[in-house]
Predict the 3D structure of the following.
Amino acid sequence: MERVLIKLSFWVVLVLVQTSRFNSCLENERIGLLDLKSFIKEVSDFETEKILVSWVDDKMSNCCDWEGVQCNATTGHVIKLSFNDTRQFSHEYYSLDRLPTLNLSLFHPFGELKSLNLSFNYFRDWHENKAYDGFRCLKQLKILDLSYNYFNTTLLPYLNNLTSLTTLDLSFNNMGEGLKSAKQGLANLTNLKVLNLYGNQTTTLYKPRIKNVEKLAELD
């Protein structure tokens, strides 16, 4: 009888764990994701109804199952976000002054994020709400892809706080020759293994800005 109870208890615990895993979407992060969706729709030019369709404002919908979202199966925290080529716009009619700025404050709820892909969205700059930490709260972030945007070197001090980064893709941005004169550069990113600066219209790699990146194995 005792063995039966032990076995029964085991199955009850297992069911509870599985149920907890299925309902692992954390409320503050679910709201944060919906805020991100609203922002991307706001800065898109057309077909906004096709953007992140699975992201619905329904508490019965598990945000860990949404498109481009991955969660930690144990804690429920969002650990990966993929927004590559998400913003809808026409390549034929855009000009630099019409491109939107990225609100860094929208990433404040995601302190456990490990991978973030914002490539191919053509943001021309960034801004943040001073009440939040923006990118600076992403202490666990290891992979960041900002390729194919129009960010300049004013973003570097914020990236320089992401000390857990192992991969940073800044290719095809607007860093240009400003990479040589950036005051802080990327000196704090001591865990960086992959750095891509291709397509930034710079002719000289300013070595003092990356001299502390001892683990760097791949540089473009």
The radius of gyration is 20 Å.
